[in-house]
Amino acid sequence: MICPLCNGFQNVDVKCQRCQTLLTDSGKVTDFFGPYSAYEEYETLGRIEDDEAMEENCIHCFFCPACGNLQQVTIFKG
């Protein structure tokens, strides 16, 4: 399965929980932990998701240009 957001097949409009401004997709959360984080064990990175859930979903980090809030959004691969 592939992430439709990572591959440009889909756009997602997500509003900031703080100020309701549209957020900007900043990429996969794993990209923020370093260049090899996608290959590391989930426990090492402090994640609680299990392997099966990670194969079905891609977690993206969204940034609010108005207030600087960061939000994680789960994108279904499929």
Give the arrangement of secondary structure elements:
Layout lengths: L23 E5 L13 H4 L5 H6 E7 L6 E7 L2
Antiparallel strand pairs: 1-2, 2-3
Report on this model:
Strand 2 and strand 3 (70-76) form a beta hairpin. This protein has helices spanning 42-45, 51-56, and strands at residues 24-28, 57-63, 70-76. Strands 1-2-3 form a 3-stranded antiparallel beta sheet. By secondary structure, it is α+β, with helices and mostly antiparallel strands. It is built from 2 helices and 3 strands, in the order E-H-H-E-E. The model is unreliable at 42-49 (pLDDT under 50). The chain is globular.
- Note the gap between the termini: 6 Å
Order of helices and strands: EHHEE
Helix content: 10-25%
> Percent of residues in beta strands?
15-25%
What is the topology, as strand order, of the major beta sheet? 1-2-3
* Alpha plus pi helix count: 2
Low-confidence parts lasting 5 or more residues at pLDDT below 50?
42-49
- Shape call: globular
Q: How many individual β-strands?
A: 3
Overall mean confidence score, pLDDT = 81
**Helix-strand category:** alpha+beta
How would a textbook summarize the main sheet? 3 strands, antiparallel
Cα-atom radius of gyration = 13 Å
Overview features:
alpha+beta; single chain; 78 residues; three-stranded antiparallel beta sheet
Task: Please sum up the structure shown.
This protein has about 80 residues and is an alpha+beta fold. The chain has 2 helices and 3 strands. A 3-stranded antiparallel β-sheet has the order 1-2-3.
